[in-house]
Design a protein that fits this description.
Four copies of one chain form a homotetramer. Chain A contains eight helices and 13 strands. By secondary structure, chain A is α/β, with parallel strands linked by helices. The mean pLDDT of chain A is about 90. Chains A and B meet through β11 and β13 of A and β11 and β13 of B. Chains A, B, C, D: This is Formyltetrahydrofolate deformylase.
C-alpha cells in the first residue's frame, strides 16, 4: 500500500475528462503513479488515480469539483487500512483465513471485532486477541436481533462489514445502514442454486463445476453486485458433502480476493455491476 | 481406440459383482485392459471394462447375463467409430471444429451428414465432402419440420445426433426417437441463464465467469444430464458481444470434450446425472 | 474493430505524459474511445489510445512528436486487418482453427498464403482457396531453404509471420527480417521442457499440469517475449500421447488468443517481456 | 474417513489380479466399498481397495500374500489419521492453513509438533497448543543441524514430515530416514524456475502463469514425485512481489490438496511419478 492518495471518480462521460484531471494534478505538482479508467458502452465514466505529492486533500478536492463538469462523484481516499467488523455463524473456514492474514498484517484492514449469532467460533477468535460478540438470535425477533447487532457495531463504526459465512438473512433496514459497505461470500456460483443447500442442489443436478461468489449486499438477497467468482471442477464421485468441502476452499479464496480489491479502493458499483480498476 | 471390446454394466449393487465379472472374463481367456467402476451412495453400480481376446461377443454376453444377478443392464460394444449426424443453424464455430477433426480422423465418429434449418453453412460443409441437408422450418409447423428431418435421418440411421448450435426447440416426440442419444451444447453455464440471450443476461448480472454446458437432451429443455462444462473469466470491460465471442470458444471445446467421452462409451446416465468412467 | 485509430506510445516516463497526449487529442477534436497505460517499476511508460475523429494522421503524429518529450516511440495504426503468412509443417490443429476463423472473418487478419516444408496440409489449405507454397528443406542447406522461403514471402510482404507448428529452427538471419513480427506457438509451458518431445518429458516427470506458450520469436530459441499461456490438468492415466492430444487443444486456443491481442495492436515488447494493454 | 480398511497393492501386472483380490475379500466376507486400479503402459499394476467387515487384518494379509502371485507389494492400512511433524522456516501461510484445519479436525492428520530453524512462527503455533521446537542452524554444520532435528523427531516418530516452506536443503542422509514420507511444497511450477527467487525469475521471463508444486522429497532436490500442482494467471502489472503474494495462495491450496491425497492413502509412487487412485 505504497500509494499516497487514491482519487476515485465516476459519472457521465465528458470529452477531455482524463485530460482535465491529469492537468489539475500536474498543475498541483502531484505525481500520477497509476491511472485506470473505463467508459461503459452507455457512456458512464470511471477513473481511479493513485497519486503522490504534498497536497491538502480537501483543497485539491475542492479544485477538482470546481473545474470538472457537474454531476461527477469525486472522492480522495487516504492510503490506509480499512476498519472492518466480521460477522460469522458457525463455519470457520473463511474467518480462519482472515484471522491468519490479519495476524501477519496482510489483510489491508483492521478487524475491530467479530460478531456472531453463535459462540462456536469464540475460541478461535480469542486466540488472536480480537473482541468477540456473541449476540444470539434466540428469543429475539429479527428486528430485535439486528438492533442488538447495530448497537454493537455502533461502538466500532466500521467502514465495511464482512459477512464471512453469516447465515442469517439481513433486512433492508440493516442494509441501509451500510450502503455498498457489506461484502458477503455466497456459497454458490451465482446466479445458479440460490437458496438453501446449494451443494445438494449441485449434486442432484450433476454439475461438473461448482463455484462461489463474493458480492456486495443490497436489499435483494443474493442479487447485489458481484465482486469475484471462482470455480472448481467436480465429477460424479463427489458427494454433496465432498462438494461442500471443496466449495469451502473456493469460498475462502474468493472472499479473500474480493476483499483485497475492495480494501484497495479498486471497486466501483454501477447499475448493480462492479467495475474493477 | 486400441481396446477391442467395451463391457458396460449398470444396476443395483451386489456383493462380489467385480469379482464375478472379472472371473467370467478370466475363465474365457479375456484380458482386462482397463476396468473402472463406481458405486453411488444410493447403492447403484456402474462398470466399464475394456478387454481383448478371441471371443464370440453374443455368447459371452449370454454367459454374463446368466451368471450375474438379475436386474443388471449389460452391453458389449465393439471398439469402433460411432455414426453421427450433426445438426446446426447458422453458427459455424462448433461445426468447423468437428469438421477439421473429422477430416483428420480425430473425432472417433463418422459424420454421415449435416442437417440445418438454414443453408448458411452449406459452403463450409461442402469443402469436406459431407452431405448437407437444408430443411427449412419456414412455412412448416414444428411437427412438419421435425418429420422432414426425421425422414432424412432415417436414411442415415445415426447412433448419435449432435446439436452443434441447433437453435430450434425440439419436441418430446423427436427426442423419443433418440433416447439418450442426442448431445447438445448449451450456450450457458447451466443451470444459470436458461433461455434467450444468455450472454446479455450474464453481462447485465455482471458475472465474472461465463461458461458452456454439453448435455444429453431429454424432454425438459436444458435439463438433460450434464456431460461436460467449462468456464472462462470475464470482467467489466467485456460487452455482451465480447462475452458471446469468448463463449463460443468455450462451447467449441466443451462440445468436443463431451463427444470424446460419449463416443468412447465412457458415459453412463442415472437419475439425470452422468457417471463418467 | 470499430476503433478508428490506435496511438501506440512507449518510452521513459515523464510527469504529465497522459495529460499532454489527451490535451493534444482534445485540441484536435479527437474523441478518446479507450485509453490504457502502464508504467513499469523501472519507470518505462506504455500507452495505447484508441480514438476517432477527422484527422490527417501524419500531421497529428508530427504534432505529437513535436510537443511530447524526446525519446518516445510513437505510432498511429489504422484500424485495419493485418496481412499475414502462416508457416506450418505437418500438424493441422492450429492451421485448421485459423482457416475456419479466417473463412468466417473472425481472424482480424488476412491470410495471404501458407508456407510449409511438407505438402501434407495442402489439401486442407486448398479447401479455403488460399495459396499454399510447398518449399521442402530436403537437399537444401538451412540457408538455402530459408532463402527460398524469403523469396516467397517477398511476394506477399506480410506484416506478421505466424508459425502455427512450424517445426524447423529458424536462423537469426531469418528472424532479423521480421523483428518482433514472428509469432510462434510453443508445445510446452515455457520455460519448462524446452526441446524435443516435451510431452514425453512431461509424462516422464509425472507433471499434473501441461501447457502451451505463444511468444514472439527472437534469436534465442524459445526465449522470445511470451504473449499468452494456458494449461490443462492431467493425471497419471494420460500417456505421453494423450498429453500430446490434450496439448494440441491448448496450443490451438493459446495461439488464437495471442494472435487476437497482436492483431489488435495490444502488445508492447520491452526487455523481453510483453506489456498487454 | 468412513472406510474401515485400505488395501494397497502394486507390482507387475498378472492376468486376473482384480479377480483374485476381489474373490479373496468376497470369501472372507469383506465388503468392497470402493475399488480403484490402474495398469501402466509398461505393465505395472496398482490397486487401492477400501473395504469393511470383521476381519483380523494380519491374517487377511497373510492369505492375500499366499494366494496372489509373488512380487507384489501388499499393505492394509487402518483407516486412521496420520501422525505428522511440520517443518517451517519463516513464512506462515502454509502453516497457518494447516493449523486452522487441524484445530477443526479437517486435516486427516495429527500435528505432533512443529520444528523450525527460526522462532518467528512460535507465537502462531502456541495459539494452537502444539509443541514448537526452535532448532537454529546457526553455529552448526548442516550435519549437526539435521542430527538435532532427527533427535527431536525421534521423540515423535511421525509417519510423515511436511515441509511447509522449510527453506533449508536437506541431505540424502536425512531423506533416507523418511523414504517417500516427506512432502514438500515447492515455490514454483516445476520443472520451471528451479532454485532461488523463482518469482523474480518468473517476472523477468514475463510469464503469464505462475504455479506451485507439492512433491515427495527424494535425494535430488526438487525432483521427487509430483503429487499436485496448480497455477494462477498473471500479467505484466504484477511485480515479482505481487507474484510472490499470489504464489503463496497457490502454495497453500496445493499443499493442502496434496496432503489430503497422501493422508488418505491415495498416492502410489513408481519410477518417480505418482499414481493417484
Amino acid at each position: 500500500m505504497a500509494e499516497h492518495h487514491i482519487l476515485l471518480m465516476d459519472g457521465p462521460d465528458h470529452k477531455g475528462l482524463i485530460y482535465q484531471v491529469t492537468r489539475i494534478l500536474f498543475e498541483h505538482n502531484q505525481n500520477v503513479i497509476r491511472n485506470d479508467e473505463y467508459v461503459s458502452p452507455s457512456g458512464y465514466f470511471f477513473m481511479r488515480t493513485a497519486f503522490s505529492g504534498d497536497v491538502v486533500v480537501a483543497d485539491l478536492l475542492q479544485i477538482l469539483k470546481k473545474e470538472l463538469p457537474e454531476g461527477l462523484n469525486l472522492r480522495i481516499n487516504p492510503n490506509k487500512k480499512k476498519d472492518i467488523v466480521v460477522m460469522v455463524t458457525k463455519e470457520h473456514h473463511c474467518l480462519g483465513d482472515l484471522l491468519i492474514r490479519y495476524a501477519f498484517d496482510e489483510l489491508d484492514a483492521n478487524i475491530l471485532a467479530v460478531v456472531s449469532n453463535y459462540n462456536i467460533l469464540q475460541p478461535l477468535v480469542s486466540k488472536f486477541g480480537i473482541p468477540f460478540h456473541y449476540i444470539t438470535h434466540e428469543n429475539r425477533t429479527r428486528e430485535e436481533h439486528e438492533e442488538a447487532i447495530l448497537r454493537t457495531l455502533d461502538v466500532y463504526r466500521p467502514e465495511f462489514l464482512v459477512l464471512a459465512k453469516y447465515m442469517r438473512i439481513i433486512t433492508p433496514t440493516f442494509v441501509d445502514q451500510f450502503p455498498n459497505r457489506i461484502v458477503n461470500i455466497h456459497h454458490s456460483f451465482l446466479p445458479a442454486f440460490i437458496g438453501a443447500n446449494p451443494y445438494r442442489q449441485a449434486y442432484e443436478r450433476g454439475v461438473k463445476i461448482i463455484g462461489a461468489t463474493a458480492h456486495f449486499v443490497n436489499n435483494h438477497l443474493d442479487e447485489g453486485p458481484i465482486i469475484a467468482q471462482d470455480v472448481k471442477s467436480v465429477d460424479h464421485r463427489q458427494t454433496a458433502s465432498d462438494m461442500a468441502t471443496l466449495g469451502k476452499e473456493t469460498e475462502k479464496s474468493v472472499l479473500s480476493k474480493a476483499l483485497k480489491l475492495v480494501f484497495n479502493d479498486r471497486v466501483f458499483i454501477h447499475q448493480n455491476r462492479t467495475i474493477i480498476l
